[in-house]
Amino acid sequence: MQKIIIPLLALCSFLPAQAQVIDIGFNFGAAFYGGDLATNDLRQMIQENRPAVGLFCRLSNSRYFSTRFNFNYMSLQGADARTQNKGRGLSFQTQVWEFNVVGEWHSFRIRHTESSFTFPYLFGGAGFFHFNPKASVDGELVELQPLGTEGQGLPGYGSPYNRMQFNLPFGAGIKFVNRKFTFGLEAGGRYLFTDYLDDVSNTVVNHREVFEGNGPLAAQLSNPNLGGGEGVDQNYRRGGERKDWYYMMNITVSYNFGQAIQKMLRDPVPCPRF
Prior knowledge:
Elements: H1 2-13, E1 20-34, H2 42-48, E2 50-60, E3 65-79, E4 91-105, E5 110-113, E6 116-130, E7 134-137, E8 140-143, E9 164-177, E10 181-192, E11 204-206, H3 207-214, H4 216-222, E12 235-237, E13 245-256, H5 260-265
Antiparallel strand pairs: 1-2, 1-13, 2-3, 3-4, 4-6, 5-6, 6-9, 7-8, 9-10, 10-13, 11-12
Helix pairs in contact: 3-4
């Protein structure tokens, strides 16, 4: 944990003086996967959610805008067994580490007392993440990217995909702020610059070519219905046009310090009281 907290504090200390630290805190909640191996059934989607945790540092830019630096960790998974493509037999799971920088826009606020407010806000930004999709084979997890299940690395196919990719986080939240603490609820998605979060894309694959070039295990996991036997001269698409996403729903808790929180709470214009 110190390996994450210390760089986060160091990063905040090198920022311009006008962008003062408001708070440092943590978030916890759930993460959801969206893509070719994801269900459309809400109840099953809830069953697929996995824990997510993170740390963040938030800065004050103005009364209406703040910047947040985030480190997040989560688990994601998907399986055809819970979708309409049960017969396809594909599945994956992965751990995700991400770092992103987002801007929070909170032009509207509700004042409860002179030093406590509720801020609805929208956020958006940019970041990068690391993932490593795996599948279960005889009870053991096997990394999918090195296998080349879609012919990666073979003549006529693309190169192996990079497991470090960029994303664009966006969403909305609401936070309750007083002089010492901030509590919030936030939900958002990640637009990904890869379609291989689940190791599945819409590339046309030939089973025999995968078998002969990348081996029987790659062929078996590429198309479980054809197995990893001797290779079958058959073309197929493992996925469709549905692009990969992941989503997070978080509760946030942070400690406020310094003069920046006072700057944020100052209210020269009337605002609603509740």
